[in-house]
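dumping this here before i forget
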Amino acid sequence: MQERLIGLYRDRFGEAPSAVLALAGDGSSRAYRRLIGSGGLSVVGVMGPDHEENRAFLSFTRAFRGIDLPVPEVYAADEEGGVYLLEDLGDTTLFDALDEARTAAGGEFPDSIVPVYREVARWLPAFQIRGGRVVDFSVAYPRDAFDRQSILWDLNYFKYHFLKLAHVPFNEARLEQDFETLIEFLLGAERDHFLYRDFQSRNVMLKDGEPRSTTSRHCSTMRKRICPPTCARTCSRHTSTRWRRRRRWTERTSTFCTADTYSSGSCRR
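structure:
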């Protein structure tokens, strides 16, 4: 597959790369290479064996870039071969930058990072609302809606790949009851928008000091974690019976999930 990647680079830039460097993976079956040309141009090559996942990523990324959302440029793609070339956003994630700045600040959240987080937070409704108007939900992966099955997959991922692996003690029957409550809560929200499920600090790169998203592949997003999505509409929720039920549920389970432990691109009816 790497030979196809090099061939794609040659077709796009008119020469073979002078260097091909392996990059760390992200826990998926995708493999990454940094391809460097004779003039110093660096691009990231991706080898993805799952063609449906590749199609979703490429489609979403092109749609987002078409409305000027901060995602990497797709230089070229060989979808049949499962390889594509992306703009190189460097090696520094927002998580890395925060960790370094926090260490320098003696463990406190550094003031220097606050503007970056505000800028990143400003993107989220743009992706979910403006992005939802342009993405092709028919190629969403692995499902085209954040439905009961998608939520259950994520919840079970949390149980089997966090709680059990970390040997965290818990009552399985009560946890399953909480799962059912959470599923009903989520399915009661308005879902006629794009849900960016992997919007977290490890998926935001800092290039020249500016944050850039690596974009989401998944429809119900991009990597399996579990925080509830926010609803794009507020309407008259404060006086509705459904909102009162949600508020009571939130009060009962406010310690159930913590920010940054979970997250993971589409959600619609």
